[in-house]
Amino acid sequence: MAPKQLFRFPPGEAFTTLLQRNKEWAERVQTVRPSLFPTNAQGQSPQILWIGCSDSRVSEACLDLLPGEVFVHRNIANCVHNGDLNSLSVIQYAVQVLKVRHIVVCGHYDCGGIWASLTTKKLGLIDNWLRGIRDVKVKHRIELDAIKDPRQKANRLAELNVIAQVHNVLRNDLVMEAVGTGQLQVHGVVYDVGSGLISELDIPEDEDQSLYYITEN
């Protein structure tokens, strides 16, 4: 089978090309799974929250699941900042309302946000967003400085960033409560853009997690 070509707008054609592709896709799905769209029209009950990077090469599609099975939040370099109302609102809705059973934080190799964080070049507004990753870089600077190959260093920082973001998720009071009652698990994975495979990372225990616990009393 010939490899699928990346989508490019044909010369002289506009957004209507995508609308036609959507129509054809919906018809194909309807043929294979006629109950999918009517079921989705009744509401959603996904068991997975996917927190990933906005990179066009990386998406929850790698899980081979259907529309309605994954609740998704994506941003530059899959970050979960403690002051970001977007990601915090997504987590709250996923845990409290949808009652997902798994949260997956997915980073990836060859991540632009990671590469940028390894430099000292001033980039503008995004520098504020990348600050959390640079904090991870500083925390692990001895390990990272020992890695001479730039790509290996970037890949390792991508993994360390996933670990840090998993810890940030686990410091969320709603997540802590759900994990404590056995209703939720949090995972950290990294996606290889060169193979399409994800690997689960070993997440070390967060020694400071208990300091973030909040009670009603």
> What is the radius of gyration computed over CA atoms, rounded to a whole number of angstroms?
20 Å
How many distinct beta strands?
A: 5
Strand content: 5-15%
Distance between the termini: 63 Å
Strand order of the largest sheet: 2-1-3-4-5
Function: Reversible hydration of carbon dioxide.
Pfam families: Pro_CA
GO biological process, one term: cellular response to carbon dioxide
Cofactor: Zn(2+)
Could you explain how this protein is built, in words?
The protein is globular and about 55 Å long. The protein is α/β, with parallel strands linked by helices. It contains 8 helices and 5 strands. The protein has one domain: Carbonic anhydrase (Beta-carbonic Anhydrase, Chain A), CATH 3.40.1050. It has a 5-stranded mixed beta sheet.
What brief labels describe this structure?
Beta-carbonic Anhydrase, Chain A, 217 residues, globular, zinc ion binding, 5-stranded mixed sheet, alpha/beta, metal-binding, zinc
Strand and helix map with partners:
Layout: H1 16-32, H2 36-40, E1 48-53, E2 70-75, H3 85-98, E3 102-108, H4 112-117, H5 126-139, H6 141-145, H7 150-170, H8 173-180, E4 185-191, E5 198-200
Question: Could you give a quick summary of the protein structure above?
Answer:
It comes from Magnusiomyces paraingens. The chain is an alpha/beta fold and 217 residues long.
